[in-house]
Amino acid sequence: MENIINRHRNLTILAAVLFAQILGLAVQVKRGTDQGTSRLIRIWAVSAITPIEKGVGHTSRWFADTWHNYLYLRGVRSQNRELRGEIEHMRLEQVRMSEDAGQARRLQSLLGFREEFISQTMPAQVISTTGSEFSRGVFIDKGSRDGIKADMPVITPDGIVGKVFRVYPTSSLVLEINDSSSGAGVILEKSRLQGILKGSPTGQTFVANIMADEKIEPGERILTSGGDRVYPKGMAVGTVSRVNPAGTFLNVEVKPSAQLNRLEEVLVITKIVEKAPEANDQSAPVRAIDILAQRLPSVPPPKPAPQNKAPATAQPKPAGTTANPNAEAASPAAVPPETAGQASTKTKPAPSAEKNAASAKAAVEAAKPETTVKDTPR
Amino acid sequence: MRAQSASRGQIEVYRFPVAAAVGVPLAALLLQRFLPLHFPTTAIFDLPLLVTIYFGIARRNQISGLLTGGVIGLVQDSLTHQPLGLYGIAKTVVGYAASSLGVKLDVDNPGSRLLMLFAFYLLHQVIYLAVARGLAGEMLSWRWGHEAIAALANALLGLVLYTALDRLRHRT
Q1: Model confidence over B106-137: pLDDT tens digits?
Q2: CB of B121 within 8 A of CB of B150?
Q3: Angle CA A332–A338–A341, to nearest 5
Q4: Taking CA atoms, what residue in B is nearest to A166?
Q5: If contacts are CB pairs under 8 Å, which of residues 181-210 in chain A contact chain B?
Q6: What is the pTM of this model?
Q7: In this structure, what are the phi and psi dihedrals at residue A298, rounded to the nearest 5 degrees?
């Protein structure tokens, strides 16, 4: 036996090295997370490589900035003229959209709808890729020392990029949405169909789980649905590039909005605030329908408890006012001031009006602005 | 960082200075990660693999070849999101095979280098895919067209790269 091993020493060492790696691989797959030795190896490798990459990246950016900002200015004047025209066009668009947004806010508040708002972001520079065709991700120059945590969403102004997969002290690995192991909850803008955005081994993105009998047109925008509890709702994901039937489901290919193969700077969403939108947002223009809604009769508040009986000399109060003046002061957020003020001057409404008023009051109560702050990941 | 103390017949054995033995794989790893940021098509190249093959055939020592491949592969693995060992196993085998081939054949000729690089790239991809699918449960598929083009591109790049690396080696 010893002779055989000696005779085939090199093959034996090869077998031993391969066996050790296969064993280590099996342990990692079984555990599912990085622990112990594998975590240490990754930290050592990343800590050795990323400082050099950061240095190279900063130097190359300095040269590029100098070239583009001070030397190569050909066509800047005409580009400036085009951009001014675009700004004018977008201003007109903004007026129309702000009115729509105001209306949406009011409707959402009536429904007690809770929205997620991006509260805090951190800009980060992309310093390198993973260097593998089979692992679609990038390294950013912010890590746990900067407050980055796993599963935080990463975006650009164009759309979502991916999520933080691994965090190291001074850098993080971001897994892009076109990696075969990534996934995101999405919704199609027009058809309102929901699905899961997935990546393929070839680096393409597609929406899974949409039935073949649904009608989807190429060019339709895709947004995040918020259902995955990672990406905030309503962020741009991409557009439908091609739709092919594949059995009982559709194969919906997606062109990502963010340029995933040319990333330079990204934003990491470090905090998301969940709150109900405020109906009386003064930033939106006030319209006649809103004034009418405010003038609806209010619901009379519940009668005070009988234990504190009002003195016999007390003046009778009109319906719709509070018996205990402190009761309203105790919960100022429950009723908007203008509604409360009108309610105190109204007489008792007719039964049908009372019914309407009850539903209006309930809606206002539901719109009570409660704010909860949460950190990603959830 | 010595390779082999004695030559075997007509086959020459080379060694490299420490700076080259450490610096070249490190530079390959850095470029592999940095170039696709600005030139996405360069993602088709596998510079660490080319370096593994080069050190394997130049040193002509099987243990040295497999260990070089194993270390480079594991570092490459640790910089991805996948489990450690996928590149490690593939490059260990390729490093061993390259040094075994180097022991038997003179692979300094450009024609034989081109063929060898083409074949080793395909071997590397086959092993990677087999391990990724069989052990790690990755849903990867073999694409003949893509792999053939990538193999050819890597072989051509390897020819240029090896000509430059030949200047760093010393005959023992």
Answers
A1: 778 889 999 999 999 999 999 999 999 998 88
A2: yes
A3: 80
A4: B81
A5: 181, 201-202
A6: 0.72
A7: -90, 165
